[in-house]
Structures are given as structure tokens and as C-alpha cells.
## 1
Amino acid sequence: MGELLRANIRAHSRRYSATALAVAISMAFVVAALALASGMDASVTKSVRDQYAGVNTVVNIDYDSAEAGEHGLEEYTDTISGVDGVEAVNEQCYGYWDIRTQDGSISPSVNVARNQELISGKLPEGSAEVAMSQANAEALGVGVGGEVTATNGFGDSGARTLRVTGILESETVTTTASVIAAPDTMRAVDETYEPDALYVSGSGDLDSSIAAAIDDPGIQVRSADDAMAEDLEMMQMGQGTLTAFMLVFPIIALTVAAIVVATTFRIIFEQRRRELALLRTLGATSRQVRGMIRGETLLVGAVSSFIGVILGAVLGAFVLVLIDVADGIGEAFGMLNISQLLIVWIVGTLLTFLIGTRPAKSVTRVSPMEALIPIDSSATKHGHKVRVSIGAVIAAVSIAGLYFGISRGEDVGFLIAFASGVLGFIGALLVCSVLLPKVTYLFGAPFRSVVGIMARSNTVRNPERTGSTGTAIILGVTLITTMAVAAGSMRETLLSEVDSRRPYDLVTIGDDMPDSLIDRVAGTEGVANAIEVRGVDGTLDGNTLTINEDSSNGTNEDADGAAGSDAGTVDGATADDASSPITILAQPDLNPVAHSTVSVIGDGQAIVPSYLGIDSLNLCGSGQCVDLTVTQDDDTEDIRVSPTTLAQVSDSASVREIYVSLADDADATEVQNALTSIDNNIDVGGAAAERAMYTQIINSVLLVIVGLLAVSVLVALVGVANTLSLSVFERTRENGLLRTLGLTKKQMRRMLVLEATLIAGSSAIIGVGLGIFFGWVGTLALPFDVEHTVIVIPWLQVIGVVVIAVLAAIVASFVPGRKAAKVSPVEALAA
């Protein structure tokens, strides 16, 4: 049997090639995902170890203690430095700054400078020095020796001028160093600075000595090894989640490959019924034949899985180098986990073997005499009815679960809806695998030529083959369409929510803004429209608001662009407090620069902060008073009236705010930097950057996910090519007869192209329909805290998926078409 096994592999190598290709692609995908996860894990582990290099003891606040926070770490720096054996005490802290130059602004995270690697320059040491990543330096237009202006991220500290002393490598997926500075610099920029930990270097039993010297139950003293182990454990938990997420897509590709492999084995073994019957007639037992077939599947699985593992390892190593996780290809290969590669090879081999076991068992159960008789399709039809019934029941249960999950909402409802959606998808695939041949036949109705009629008929000659091949395409297209619909809907829902809560692209505020600033803002490239808001300062006493005679500018802007008052309200002030300062703004109609409808303040009306608790307002200035009706608002910190109302009591209003709308093709960050560079004394914020961030993140994630799912579609298209190739082999004599009757080579190729187009086209359309449905219900089930969910169907992307699937199927049909056309009629009839 061994010699026969080798002979069969050689004889049927072309039939097994598609199976081997599908398995190899899937295994390569799994290995590449594991390689990426292993590389990132190794890189993160290295970064944690580097963080504690040269450190013996770590001192930090013990937040689990009741005495935590009673004393800061800075109080113990001198005490620790005086302990015998201590050589150095280094502070560790993270913070957030706003950094700007004339060319731009950034809001990075800031770490304490310690032992980070630099591209150029030196680590910052003094109280006015800083180093930053190359990307940040480019955004600010500075290099080593340049100067930047920094404030803390909360805007409650004075600006500090810092000199750039060094350039770090730009951030990667495993490194987060963005800006580093010495502790003295961090104190200078942020008055609230406090170290998170103290890293102590030295010799001897420092842990117990430092703990005894401090003697504070609110302070934790531990070895650097213990601190590093805790950090690594937390990192590994995150890496485990990342690995699980990354394996989702290879598993999907593996599922598609399983469908392709199962279909291929079933077709191959059915085509070899007569051959196997002859072996049985010549004396081979059923067990021997079954063992031979299992040997073939095991050998195909082992070889193709091995090739896939090697290709995946090479691909994964190159990806690790590409994303800067590894410095070179040698280091990248060193990050691979050999045991994982071995496990993947074993899994791929066994999976292929097990998939081939069922068709091998069924074909060897048939007696030699039965194998020589044409297959009875009645049993197959019965199996189809059972499959449709089971799929329909599963789909019905799924719909009920989806309705319950969406109605319930929150996290639990989403999990119920997600599980129901997966169940419903399985039910839909069961039904589609049976109904697809009939749908494909109807799909080909417009093709009424001789070639079209034959191609259409070929799709239903072997319904099982067409159904299995099309189901693989449906699976991939459905998932891609689902993600496209869900991503588009999430993007529009988030943007709609941002527009309703923060309808302005950018808001410019500042002290002593000149009247000419509005013209400079409006003339900035990328600005579509700009409207200024003028205001004055006043004093609120009860329900009477008196405009200050010498009104000085003073406005406030929160981090997300909502206007407020600096000089204005005293925190916690109410109408009962005597002489509370507040800002009065004359707000015109802002709808021309808003993304959603903004209420227009009418003459004789005022919008006041809710915390003031007043229900009427008497506005006085220039020797006259105006009584105003009041609308309370939780989102404002100023008192807002119409320009006409303010003009009645004051003629000294100055520019306090400028609201800006951007052109459709404008880059929010570039425009914001351009506006900031107009005057260093103004602040620019707003929803445009947030809107652009949401769009960029969702588009990037969608691009990655679609790219990963595209591998599944590629495997499915391998199945299309395999189905056509096996069909050509099966219909060799028939094709020869057609050629004898006058069918040209071109028509033969066209028939196979049309057959592939019908299968791929109908499958892609069904997949798009399912994808739209699951994307729609999935978006509704997401636990978003939004006013309303916007469902968007990205028709351009959807049509693109169908077109790509059909074009790829056409390309996949070229080889089988050429093979069929090359065989001469005489050779085909003699086969």
C-alpha cells in the first residue's frame, strides 16, 4: 500500500494542489498572527526590563493602605538618599503637556528622562530642557537646539520656554516615549507634579533598610524584581487579549479553508469511486483502501501545513521589522516561538486529516458493485432538506435572540445579540449552501447564448459542489460587508453625537484679541467661515448684572472648545454671593458655522449658567437697565445675550471668541496650528480634531480588519479555481464532444469564466445582503450612550466588494479554462 500511496499522490497531485494551497495560506496566516503577537510580547517584555535596568528597589505609594496619600514621595527623597548602600534615587512620573511653536502644537504624554535611546542630541538635564520623538519634532518644526513653549495639559499653569536637547525615535506599537524631561522641568511646567515612584540604585539589602528608614504604612517598598514581575503580568494579560483578537481572523480563514478542503476531498473521492472499486475487486479490503486514502490526506496536510508554517514565519518576521518591533530580520526570527510553530503544523496536519476522514469513510463503505453504479441523488436531496430545516430553526432562534439583546441594551444585551448573530450566521450558511445552486441558476437567466445556457446548467449539475464553493465566498464577503456597514454606522453615529453636543469645528479665544483678528482668521487657508463673539465683564449681585466701567478681557475655554469665562465666575458662585464677577457675551446667529442647529438668542433674552439659580435678570450699563427673560443652561459658564441687547447697555465690547467652520477638504490639525501661530496669546480648540480622530481611527481599523478578512476571501477563491479545475477534469469527455460539435476554444474558456462569474456573483450578492443585515443589527446592539444611532450603508464599498469578488473569480477561472481548451477533441474522447 505504501507504493500505491506514493503513486496516487503523484497521479492526483493536481487535484490536491488547491487543497494544499488553501491549507498553506491558512496556516501561514495563523503563524503570521502568532509571530506578530510573540514579537510584540517580546518587545514589550524587553521595554519593561529596560525600564528597571540598574534599579534595586522601587518605592511608591501603597494605594491599598488606609494611610495612602498622607505623605508624598518627595518627602522621603532625602531620607532614602541617606540610607547606607544607596547610590542614586531617580523619580518616575508621567504627565501631559501642551507644547507649541510658531509652526504647530501638540499635546503629548511626558515621561521622566532616564535611559531612553536618542537619535541625536543628549538627554535633558536642566530645568528648561526637553527631548521629544522625531514625529513630534517634525510637527513642531524644531530640532536639537530649538525652543518650544510648554504648559501643563490642564491649562492652569504659566507657559515655560524649553530648549530641545535631543530627538527620540518616533513611537511604535510597543514604545510610547513621546516627550521626556528632567523632574525639575516637569515641576516647572506643572506645579501639581508629584513623582509616581522612586527608583533606587545601590548595593546591599536596600528593601528592608529603606522601609525601616521611611516607616510609613502608606508607602510601599519592594524589590525591582517584584515590581517588574507585576508589570510583566499586567502586560501579559493585555498581550493575551491582543493575541486572542488577532487569531480571530486566521480562524475565520481556517474555517473557509476547511470548507474548501472538505469540498475538494468529497469531489476527489467521488470521482475516484470506480478506481477504488477496482482496487476492492482486485482484493484490497475496505480497511486497506480507507487507510490508503487517510494516508493521502495526512501527507497532503503535513506537507501543505509545513509550507504554510515556513511562509508564515518569514512573513511574520518581515512584518515585525516593518513595524519597528524588531531591528533586523535575525532579531525578528529570534522572537518567534518554536513550540507555537510546531503546534500550528500539527493542528494543520490533523485538521486536514480529520476533514478527509468522513468522505474517505463514506466512499469506502460502498461495495465494488455499488461503486460502478451512478450515484443516486435521492439521499443527497434528503440531506438538503434536513440541512435547510436545521438552518431555518437556528435562524429563527437567532432573530429572537437579536431582538431581545437589542431591546435589553447595555453590555449584557450586546453579548446576547452578538451570540445570537453568530448563531444566525451559522444557520444562514446552512440554508445558503442548499439554496445557492438554485439562486445561481436564476442569476444566470439573462445569459441566453449557447455558452451562457451551458454555463448556467453546469452550476446545478453538482449542487453540493456549487453550494460548498459559494458558501466559502459568502462567509468572507458577509464578514467584510458587516464590518464596512458597522464601521460606517459607528463613524456617522459618533460624528452626529459630536455635532449635536459640540457643533463648532474650531473656537478661538484669548485675552486682548484685536478687532483685526477676525479677518486674519477668516483668511487662513482651510477656513470656510468665521464669526466673532464680543463681550464685556460684569458683576452679578442678586438678579442685577452690572457691566464694569473698565471692562477687561478675560474668557475661558475648556479643553474641548466650549466657551467659558476666566475672569468670569468664581467657582461655586451663586446669585446669593455678593458681587460675583462674570462675563457677558453677545452671541450672534452661529448656525452658519455650526454642524447642527444652534438656538438663536432673541432680543430681551439671556442664557445663564444653571448653577446661578436665577429666573430673571436685570442688565445694567451706560446709565440704563434692561430686564431680560432667562433660560438656564448646564453647558455654559457665561451669561449670553443677543448683540442688540448688549449694544443697548455697552459700547465697549471687545472680541472674546471666534467660531470657525472648516472647508470640506481642510486638515483640522493643520488649520488649528495655523490659527495658533497667528498669535501665541490665543487658544484654539474645538470638535474638528476629535471628528477627524474618530474618522481616522475607524477608517484605519476598518482597513486592517478588511485586509485580514480578505485572506478568507482569497482562500474561498482558491476553492472556486479548484471547483472549476475538478469540473474540467470530470467533464473531459463531455468537453471533447462539445469541441467535436463545433465549440471553439474561446467559447470553452468563456463558458468556464461565466460559470465562475455566476457562482462568485450570486454568492457575493447573498453575502452583501447578509452583511448589511448583520452590520445593521450589530450597530443597533452596540452599548453606545448616544441620542440616536445612524445606520449607513457604504454602497461604494459594498459594490467594490462584489466587483472584486467577481473579478477575482474570473482570474481564478483562467487556468482551468486554458486547461480545458488545450485538450484536443480526440484526446478528450479517448480519456
## 2
Amino acid sequence: MPPYSYSDCVHCGKTIAKKEDAIINANGAIFCCWGCETVYSILKKEHFSLINKPHAGSSEYDILDNESFLRDYSVLQDGRQGMRFFVEGVQCTSCLWIIDQIPHWIPEVETVHLNMSQNTLFVSLKSPGFFGKVVSTLAALGYKTYPIRNTGEARHFQKKENHRHLMRLGVAGACAGSIMLYSFALYSGLTGPMAQVFQYINLAFFLPVLFYCARPFYINLWRSFRAWRPSIDLPIVLAVAIGFVLSLLHLIQGRQDFYFDSLSVLIFLLLASRYLLSRTQQKFLNSSYLLSFFEAQICRRWNEGRHAYEKVSASHLNTGDKILVNEGERIPADGEMINDWVNINPSVLTGESLPQKLFKGAKIYAGTKVVSGYAEILIEHTTGGSRIGRILKKVEEQIYNKTPLISLTDKAAHYFTLFILSLGMLFFLFYSVIDIAEAVRRTLALIILACPCALAFATPLTQSLSLKKASKKGYLIKNAESLEKLSRVKNVFFDKTGTLTQGQFEFLKWKSLQSGESVNFVPDTITLNAIYSIETHSQHPIARALVKQLEKVCDVKLPVCSLKEIPGKGISGTVEDNHYKLISALPDDGNDDSGIIASTVAIYRNELLVAYACLGDKLRKDAKETITALKKSGIKPHIVSGDNDSTVRNVAKKLELADDSIYAGVSPEEKSTIVNTVSNALMVGDGVNDALAMSSCSIGIAVQGSVEASLVAADIYSAKEGVSPVLDLILLSKNTLSIIKRNLVISFLYNFAGGIAALFGVISPLVAAILMPVSSLVILLSTVAGTKFTRKFNKWLPTNIR
């Protein structure tokens, strides 16, 4: 296979499927089109005058490279030493693209990672390198940067920036409302001196909107121009500038054509939509998951001087420390067991539903939980260097490397902007020969009316409403791109424990020696009382599950003689002159549709087998119906689990999954590899053991668990019980995408018709300015009507899984 087959464009990252579609320059770099090759060549040849002279010589940034400053602010991330900054003014994927080019413009920069949810930028340098040059470059691009030590400082700066955005939004809303109020009087026929006073009042109210509220549009346009990148804000700025100039001229000349009201409302709506998207992203994505996962756990560390355990924070533990972890607590670090035994729940790492017993000398891992007994541990790796810590760091690294795709509307708006400007210029040159005044009038009407404001407004609004309505249903979607990816899903991988099953180890049923009697079989009262009396003396999870079940029917605890634990097998004892032995037996696959038998206890009385106790997990009620519905919709379901092969195949059999859809006994790292081999794949899981797979998959959905920890790895978090939300969300994504496409068609038809009318002189600049927000209103109505679908989620689901 040639090296450029199925490659990615060096400039925009787009996948190139065929060799003949690739553009290869003289240096062997691969591009998807000549446009990318041209822009890339411009940048690489350093025709970017801003970066050639980025004001790096300014002394105000020298302090960043001061030795004492570096000592305070230098951080280690992904094995690289660097500095973290809060970047003020990050708005969209264009900002991400521009900042990602810094290593190309400044060779001393090794890597840059921008976290758009927190507006934090990590920069690492080659030696020698200067952080001052990076910051001066960002400043020249219009980004204010502040060095930070931790995420707490980032949240402080982010809060201040959000406050500024709200101030702009509030001023725009107040001014637009006031302008509309005075304009209503003018449209109603007010004339004379009072009308002129109202016109000047409108001008006064519009000036804050023009010079303060609309400032983000000017800054974004300036950055795009300096980076040789087309901007959707260009027609917005042109429309505002032209509308203001014409309104001012008409006011001076005493004419009645003014656009203050329509322009102020347009700016207010655009600001509101962008702010809503920004806050949604900030709310649902937070990378402080290590702290939330271990919950700043308080541990007991051995103090040699006092010969006692003392309480310390998990963050203060060191390699070589001895710690004590009691029942119900989570292990904070990797290490070696130094006491005799402990029962742990390892599902956070393996997905294994059956508790595991560890003995002295065994390795024990952070994140697992003590379910009975206690653990004395000699620490080998602290939280950050533990196995779970390394997995979470990989998750974070993969999230930073996920560059958002340029949306369909973003591309369309860029091309549409260039097309309209080119058309307007050509028309002006052609018609100015005939009538230059009319050429100016018609060209201005074209630019104002055919501005892709509706395109800029439609997609963010649709996405915002979908995200908001989904969150009310218990679905937290951290970015709008997830909806687009979800609509293309062809394969769904389900974790078993806690996802398809309830994730709780419990008693399922009694089983008789005669298979025909097993349905409603229950041992006699004497046997039940004996089992209850014996198992109350054991701390094993199986014993606890049996005791919990028998407490409902046994009201007496009988004395037990000759009590004896059988290591690795079970327990025995004598009750009322009868010797009972309860030992592990091989589980079967069960015949019901709810229970997943993970462990079977054989019950002997006087060496005669009298019954079996079956324990394990249970399938969720909606699991089978969801799998069936996915198959009918053309989506292939899979099961991928760290549990043993027999248990996983038992689940697959009940769900009627094919053998090639079953993956058992796999580690978190292997899960990630499996889902990466399948295109358009969705990973559904509930544990941190699924985090690596969910973050490396096309898209991930987390069910239950910690919202904060889940949304770092997964794209979507479902707070609803069961797995039916998978169908729910796929339907939502398809509906959202169809609304966006419909809005695109409406917008293009609207602008095409209006553009033709403007060029033929049917529409004046005044009418164009009035009609411009009308297109946004039409898109608003289309979007609101379309997203009503989310209020009727359950009507689209199969009746038996609503």
C-alpha cells in the first residue's frame, strides 16, 4: 500500500481515502486539496508577517523566562516540562486551529495543547526556548494570556471572562430593547422634531452595541485575517459597519432609512447563542478527574515514631509508606499486601463482578475497593503513578489530542462568504460603468441581505437547544460534535458489568438436584436455618449475599460447632447434630432471562448434596429489548468485558449476540485496541475501566457513575437507568442533524432569492437590513419546531422499553 493511501491532510487533518485524491507537494507533504496546500505553503514559507515580527522583543514578557518565575509556574505534563496558561478570548475551532499552528511559526515550541472547555493552554519548549515569545505571539493575535499554577486559577480567570461576556450580552439586550421601543413609535408614523429626537436616541443606544458588544466579532475577524483564514464573522462585521455608516449618513441627511434596530437585535442573538454554547462546554467537560475519582481520600499511614496509624491525605503518600485501608474504602495507591488476606471489588479495573480474595504478598491496585476485612499495603506507586492513574492520564492526553471537526455549516459559511464577496465585487465593477450610484446601492443590498448570519445562527442554536433539552432528560452531552458522530454509528460496544447488568453481586435463586424442580425450589426450613447460622460467621462476599437473602426468612440463629473455613472453597460447621458443608461449585448458564450466574455454592448435609445456591449479577430489564432494537435499525451490538469467558458468553446467549460480537477477559488497554479496529463505533460503559476505550473510540456514552469522571472520558453521560438511552440518543442525533441540514437549505434558498432580488434592484439596502434578521427568525422557528422532538423521546422507543 502506498504511504499516502488512507492518509490525513497535513493542513486540515481531513482523511484522504484514495491515492488519486491526494495532492502531494515537492517535499512529500500530503493534502486533500490545492487550497490546503496553498495556505500550508504560505505558512511554512513564513509569509505570515505577524509571526515573523510578533513583538517578542517586548520587555514586558521577559519575566516569564526568569528563573524564579519558572520555578513557581513550571509544570510536568505527559512527561514534558512546560508552562500552563489561561487564554482569554478563545471562541471556536478557528481559535483552536490558529493556536495549533504556533509550533510551525515558532520552531522552539515543542508542543501546544489547548483545552477549550477551560481555555487553558499547555506549552512545552525545546532548548533553548522562551515562553515570552509564545505569549507575545498570542498577544499579537489578540489573545490575553495569564500563567497559572493550577485549575483553580483557571476557573478564576474563566469566571471573570464569563462575567465580561454576560456584561456584553446584557448591554446588547438592553440597548436592542430600547431601540426597538423607540423604533416602534417611528414605524407607527411619528414625525416632526420628536421623531428626529427619537432617531438620535436610537443612535446613542446603538453606539455601545457597535463599539462594545460587537467587539468579539471584530477581534475574531482580525485573528482570521492575520492567520490567512476565511472567517464567518466577515459578513457580520461588514453588515454592521455598512448598516451603521448608511444609517448615520441618512440621519445627517434627514432621511428615514435606519438599521439600528435590526442590527442591534442580530448582535444580541448571535452573542446569546455563542455564550450558551460556551457555557455548555465549560459545564460538561472538566479535567480534574483524578481528584474527583479518589475524592481527596483521607488515608491511614503508619507513623514509626508513634507506632500508630495517622490520618493523611492520599496526595501526601510516598513510595515505601505503609497504609491501612478498612472495609468500604478505596485503595489509594498500588502496592503489596502485607497482612494475611482481604476481599476486594476489582471491577473498577477489570469489570469483574465477582469479589476477589487477595493474600499476603499479592499486588493490590489503586481504585479497587475493600469489601470485607482490611488491607495493610506497602506502597510501590502513588496515585499519579498507579495503574489507574496512568490510564486516566492517557484518557486526558487523548482528549487533548481530539481536534474538533470543522462543521458542515462552518465550511458552507466560509465558502458562501467568499462567493458573495466575489460576486459583489464583480457586479460592482460591471455595473459601475452603467450607473455607479446604483452599483453601490445594489452591491450594499447584496452584502447585507446575503450575509450568512442565519448560517452562523442556525447551527449553534440547534445544537444548544438539543443539548439543553437532552440535559433535562438526564443526558449530558459535552459538545455538539458528539451529536454528529452519534448519527453515523454502525457498531455499539457494551461493557457487561454495570452496563448490561445491574453491577451488583447478589443471591439469584436456589437450584435443586432435579432440574425439573428448580423453578420454584427452596430448601427446607431446617437447611435454611443451618446455612444462615453458619454463614453469619464468615465475612466473604458470597456469605454476606446469602445472609442478606436468608434474613428475610430465618428468624433464629442456631449455635454452630466445629466451624471451619475451607481456604479457597467455602465453610463448614455442625448445627443440631448435622454437619453442613458449603463449597464452591462450577456455575451453569442458567435458564432464566434475568440472572447471570457467576458463582454457585453446593450445599452438603452429612456429606450428601441437597441443594445449590446461585449467586451473581442480573441483566438490566431493558437490555434485551435495546439490543434487538439496535439490530433492527442496522446497528451491530457487541459485548466487551473483563469478566471470564463463560459468564460473558452466558450474557451474550441471553441477548442473542453472535460469537463474533463477544470479547471476554480483556483488560482496559485491550478494550481500547478492540474498539479502535472498528469504524463508526460507540462504546457504552459505566466504570473507569472503560474510560480508555470510551476516549479512544469514535464516541463514548457513560451510564451511571461520577458525572465529572465520566465526562472526561466519554462524550455523553446518561443519568437514566438502563441502556435504552443509547437508542434515545441516536434518535436525537439524527433529528438534530436533519434540522441543521433543513436550516442550511432554508438559509441558502432565502439568501439566493434575496441576492438575485438585490442584484436586480428590487431590494434596497433599507429593505435588505430589515430582511436580514428575518432569515434568522425563520431559522429560529424551524429549529424550535424541530427540537420539540426531544420532548417526545419515549414515543419513538419500543413500547416495552419506555
